[in-house]
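Quick one, tokens below. Sequence please?
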């Protein structure tokens, strides 16, 4: 394999982005599609071969292993699917900028996962955050600019921490290749570097408590860019860095305390985000909070230190990008027809948009962990691995891990409840009269969401053959992989399907024997009910919002008490006011500050 081949994964999309500046719209789309297909072919070819690392001045810059190849393959697949969706239906005012930012985004993401050098990682990681901001600016809503600014500050701040953490690691080990040998977490400097890299990974993936940009960005940015970055590629980059931290950058094999921290953080992320998703009446914000919630499962799995759970966390990373992109794009198809993403303004669209309804239903079942779809298998792996982890620990640790596991399972149940609202509010119930002329979305939307929906089923049925054996055993090489091989023999999709069919059959029989259903029109005061009295699919969930144990927590969340950005903004304003009071313009006071500063400097350096 020629050394320069790895360069093509980065240089080709960069060149496509530059050429697209001068090309007309049709040629831009064709060039983007051809470039994306070539990148997918190249990624598969490189994964099957043994590409040599790229070096500059004797420093390794790009390299590829199983984990890198795994991430690259799905970056290309997801970007192609989302590009197909964007070929028609994208706002004409945005299409030109989108066609330029799209290949630039793919180039940055490819370069990030290929980077084995700290300098190149920081550069391309930062550029991927920049394109996230630029996509946010394409939003047309009233809060789009403010949301893009918030995203830029949070992601940019975490990028600065990533740089600082890598500098600390270089000072400790003098390694530019950050994957060369793991650093032990046995001193304050290493722990500080770990915390800084962890914040960068959580902010990029949308993990608690650095997640607050994601639901707002999901609401305001164009749906194509939301499906491309927060729902897909940013998740891959954030969890990829977290996996590298656990398996390559730091030595965490025997650090039980840190592993328990990850399991706890994951469980907290799951339950907090899913509780917020339950009360959202805007479809995009609901999906945005679920994008945060799903990160919790990945954190639990990847950070647990158990090979089964780690493989499950990485598999869930891919599963989430597939069904979450499907859900965002399905909602986008509806939004383009209805003109709104507010659930209360929809209803009864299942008959008008049957294909979109089917694809959204598959995505909802997948994210809820319903077998035999892909979300079930990855969650099952995470739960199995964490239970195995608990076996060899003292009783107190076992109890704590089981509590976290209960929260995660409860989060899956709440996810299903939340998507019952999502599906019912959009596709079921009574349709508003103004939506009677709604039609099914365009063919490119069918193709994109259809591929994603079929992938949810295929990866659920054939995960062992397509994902587990080709990728996972080779990626989790640092840990004991014997249990991984045996686990692949335990999962039987045929048995899962049979059990589901039996359960469904029993439920159907019970329904047929006990059903008492009558259909009638709604009347109010003896007259047919007006449109404004229509029962919408969001009303029941208002009661959850107003429950006395939860009301105060929801109020605090809506008042931004847990928003890192808002808290930092308030602190900055208060601190600036304090500085203003300390600088009244009096010369003698400034001289006093100088004297105090000189004395402190002498005391520090003496």
């Amino acid at each position: 394999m020629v050394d320069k081949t790895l360069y093509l994964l980065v240089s080709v999309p960069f060149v496509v982005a530059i050429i697209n500046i001068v090309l007309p719209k049709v040629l831009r789309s064709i060039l983007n599609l051809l470039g994306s297909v070539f990148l997918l072919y190249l990624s598969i070819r490189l994964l099957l071969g043994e590409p040599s690392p790229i070096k500059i001045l004797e420093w390794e810059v790009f390299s590829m292993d199983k984990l890198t190849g795994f991430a690259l393959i799905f970056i290309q697949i997801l970007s192609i699917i989302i590009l197909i969706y964007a070929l028609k239906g994208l706002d004409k005012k945005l299409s030109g900028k989108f066609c330029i930012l799209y290949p630039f985004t793919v180039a940055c993401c490819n370069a990030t996962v290929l980077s084995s050098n700290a300098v190149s990682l920081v550069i391309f990681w930062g550029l991927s955050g920049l394109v996230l901001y630029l996509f946010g600016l394409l939003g047309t809503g009233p809060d789009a600019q403010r949301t893009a600014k918030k995203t830029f500050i949070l992601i940019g701040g975490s990028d600065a921490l990533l740089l600082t953490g890598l500098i600390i690691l270089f000072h400790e080990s003098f390694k530019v290749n950050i994957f060369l040998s793991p650093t032990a977490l046995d001193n304050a400097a290493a722990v500080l570097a770990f915390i800084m890299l962890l914040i960068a990974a959580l902010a990029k993936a949308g993990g608690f408590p650095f997640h607050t940009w994601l639901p707002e960005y999901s609401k305001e940015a164009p749906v194509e860019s939301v499906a491309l970055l927060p729902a897909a590629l940013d998740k891959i980059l954030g969890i990829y860095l977290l996996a590298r931290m656990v398996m390559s950058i730091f030595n965490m094999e025997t650090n039980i305390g840190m592993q328990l921290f990850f399991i706890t953080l994951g469980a907290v992320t799951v339950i907090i985000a899913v509780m917020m998703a339950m009360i959202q009446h805007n479809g995009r914000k609901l999906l945005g909070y679920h994008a945060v919630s799903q990160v919790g499962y990945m954190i639990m799995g990847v950070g647990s230190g158990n090979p089964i759970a780690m493989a499950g966390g990485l598999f869930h990373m891919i599963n989430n990008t597939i069904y979450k992109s499907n859900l965002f794009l399905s909602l986008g198809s509806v939004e383009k027809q209805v003109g709104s993403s507010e659930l209360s303004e929809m209803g009864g669209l299942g008959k008008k948009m049957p294909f979109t309804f089917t694809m959204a239903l598959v995505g909802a079942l997948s994210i809820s962990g319903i077998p035999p779809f892909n979300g079930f298998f990855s969650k099952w792996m995470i739960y199995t691995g964490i239970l195995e982890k608990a076996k060899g620990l003292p009783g107190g640790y076992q109890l704590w891990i089981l509590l976290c596991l209960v929260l995660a399972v409860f989060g899956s149940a709440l996810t299903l409840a939340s998507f019952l609202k999502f599906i019912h509010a959009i596709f079921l119930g009574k349709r508003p009269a103004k939506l009677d002329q709604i039609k099914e979305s365009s063919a490119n939307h069918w193709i994109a969401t259809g591929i994603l929906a079929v992938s949810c089923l295929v990866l659920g049925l054939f995960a062992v053959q397509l994902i587990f054996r080709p990728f996972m055993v080779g990626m989790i090489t640092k840990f004991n992989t014997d249990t991984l091989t045996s686990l692949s023999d335990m999962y039987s999709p045929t048995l899962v399907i049979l059990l589901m069919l039996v359960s469904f059959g029993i439920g159907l029989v019970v329904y047929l024997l006990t059903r008492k259903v009558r259909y009638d029109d709604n009347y109010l005061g003896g007259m047919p009910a007006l449109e404004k009295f229509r029962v919408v699919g969001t009303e029941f969930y208002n009661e959850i919002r107003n429950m006395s144990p939860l009301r105060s927590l929801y109020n605090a969340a809506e008042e931004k008490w847990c928003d890192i950005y808002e808290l930092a903004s308030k602190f900055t304003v208060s601190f600036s006011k304090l500085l203003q009071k300390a600088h009244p313009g009096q010369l003698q006071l400034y001289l006093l500050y100088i004297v105090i500063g000189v004395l402190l400097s002498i005391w520090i350096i003496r």
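The two ends are 58 Å apart (CA to CA). The chain has a mean pLDDT of 87.
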